[in-house]
Design a protein that fits this description.
Elements lengths: L1 E4 L4 H13 L6 E4 L10 H4 L9 E3 L5 E3 L1 H11 L10 H29 L12 H22 L12 H12 L7 H4 L1 H13 L4
Parallel strand pairs: 1-2
Antiparallel strand pairs: 1-3, 3-4
Length: 204
C-alpha cells in the first residue's frame, strides 16, 4: 500500500497519527505530496486522487481511497487492534458522533478561518473572504470552549477511552498553530487532555 501525505497538513496527519496509534505506520509506503507547491494538482497525482485531495491511499490492487476518515476506516478493518472506532454499536455511534463534532464544528470552521485570513493561502483561496474568516474564527473558538467544558468531566473525547476522536482533536489543536492560536494553552481542561495525549506518544 502507498499512502500519499503532506507533513504538517491536518488531514494527512490524521491518517498518519491513526496508523501510528495502531503501531502500523511501517505497513505503508509513504510518499510526500507538497500542497504549497501544488503537487496535488498535477496530472500524475490526479490519476490517484481525481479531486486533488491529500491524503490518498493506493491499494495493491489499484484501488484508490481518499478522505482521511474513509482511509482510517479502511485501516481499522485491516488492523483491528487496538480498536479506535468502537467495539460495539454504542461505542461506534458515540465515537463517530464526537469525531464528527470535532471535524465539522472545530476543524472545518478553523480551516475556513485559516484559508480566508492567512497570506500564504491567498493563491489557493481566490478570493479570500474576511467575513468568512471572522465567522470561522468565532465558531472554532466557541467549539473549543464547548470541548473544554466536556473534557472537564471526561478523560477522553468519546466513549471514555482513546479513539479516533482524540486523534482528530489533537491534530486540529496542532493545526491551529498556523493562526498563532493554541486552544490547549488557553483552556485548562483541553490543556490537561492535550498533555495526556502528547504523553501517549501517538503523535511521534
Amino acid at each position: 500500500m502507498k499512502l500519499y501525505h503532506s507533513p504538517m497538513a491536518p488531514n494527512p496527519d490524521r491518517v498518519v497519527f491513526f496508523l501510528r496509534a495502531k503501531g502500523k505506520l511501517d505497513a505503508v509506503d509513504l510518499e510526500e505530496v507538497s500542497i504549497m507547491k501544488l503537487e496535488h494538482k498535477q496530472p500524475g497525482y490526479r490519476e490517484v486522487s481525481p479531486y486533488s485531495q491529500v491524503p490518498a491511499l493506493l491499494l495493491d490492487d489499484g484501488t484508490s481511497i481518499t478522505e482521511s476518515r474513509a482511509i482510517c476506516t479502511y485501516f481499522e478493518g485491516v488492523f483491528p487492534e487496538p480498536n479506535l472506532m468502537g467495539a460495539d454499536p454504542k461505542e461506534k455511534a458515540l465515537i463517530e458522533m464526537w469525531d464528527r463534532r470535532v471535524e465539522l464544528m472545530l476543524f472545518v470552521q478553523f480551516a475556513g478561518w485559516f484559508r480566508n485570513a492567512h497570506p500564504a493561502m491567498a493563491p489557493l483561496e481566490v478570493p479570500q473572504s474576511p467575513e468568512t474568516a471572522a465567522k470561522g474564527e468565532r465558531a472554532a473558538k466557541k467549539m473549543a470552549e464547548r470541548l473544554n467544558e466536556h473534557l472537564a468531566s471526561h478523560e477522553f473525547v468519546a466513549a471514555d477511552r482513546f479513539s479516533i476522536a482524540d486523534i482528530t482533536l489533537y491534530v486540529t489543536c496542532g493545526f491551529a498553530r498556523v493562526m498563532k492560536w493554541a486552544p490547549h494553552k488557553e483552556l485548562p481542561h483541553l490543556g490537561r487532555w492535550h498533555s495526556a495525549m502528547t504523553a501517549r506518544g501517538f503523535a511521534g
